[in-house]
Give the backbone structure.
Amino acid sequence: MTGFAKDSLVRVKSHFPPSPPAHCRTPFYIRGCVGKIERICGAFENPEELAFGRVGGDKKVLYRVRFSQSDIWPDYEGSKNDQIDIELYDFWLENPEEERK
Amino acid sequence: MNRDFTARGNHDMGGLEAGTIDKDEHDYALWEKRVDAMMMLLSNELSILTVDQLRKGIEALPPDAYDNMTYYERWMASITNTLLETGVITTEELGSKMREIKPDFFSGMDSLK
Amino acid sequence: MTTEPHDHENMHEYDPQHHHPHRDDQDDTMTYYRIMESAVRDLLIEKKLINADQIRDQIEKMDARVPANGAKIVARAWSDMDYKNRLINDPKSAVAELGHDIGPLNLIVLENTESVHNVVVCTLCSCYPRWILGLPPDWYKSREYRSRVVREPRKVLEEFGTLIDDQREVRVHDSTADMRYLVLPKRPHGTEELSEEDLVPLIGRDALIGVVEVKAP
């Protein structure tokens, strides 16, 4: 599976199957939302594994994904131009064209 | 039946309703700086704990920890729990040492039913 | 075993091998977690995993990291266009030019412009560019800030006295992973004649987080 390119659209998975019952860094509020890759940050060790003290594992690609605030909050009161950038790991993202799991 | 398995952790606060922001700041107490220093040594220097373990340990605290414990109290609880889990210290060592440091803090507890 | 009570605030006299009742910090009674901190520290020292010098050293290093470090970086960027470009394109090196080793941090510098105002948060915990700015303020770590700034950033900015025009985008950055952020505030009108040195005191920590803009004197 190749990574996502800059500016491509991605959807945040609702839960990464299987989502560990402890420690993940994908905030609840962004799950299921569609955004655009702002940049590829690089590859880093997986926090979901590091949380158990397991270091030296495979690195995972980290992206910054940009979302429109009005796409996230149904009652967003700020400007329609407002956006939010969040760092998300590759395995929490999918192609928005894919059927939601 | 559709259940939502995506439970929100207590720490995962983005988007929740909350009140006005209290801008009062406190000077860090020396003991708080020592907790911070201890964590830096345990992670960056000694690689005994990861920052992620610290976070996970905080996330595992009971829900009212956010409102009833201070920031560095949560850190201390998490560091201690992780050191216990990984066997760096034992519960017996911890208990003995805490009693040794302030015996009168704990002496009343012996008589608790 | 007892001696005259003396002040543990002065780390230069601190001697962990000297067993005696620990003096309370800040006149409060020792709380459960303060006792725990003492106990764990003593155990780690007994097991020769750490020593008192190392703790003192870490504290001194952290005390030396202050928001003025960030202010100097910004003042340089405002005064020197080439530096500003280096800062945005390769923050780690640019910051190192001013003598700051940011260690394991991956830094992203967010430039405020006519069209965008940036503000930073860590909704999941309290990630902050501590290797440059030192420890974050209490409010940054609070439930109220972490919950609300992603959802109603303009209201939160207003609480800090900051009003951003509707035409200008407010862009929030949630430090969820390995990146850390420093806002490069807009240089205010009326500062064009000021030297780099004179700009530094104008640039406060809160402007580097993004909850306020820098004001001309």
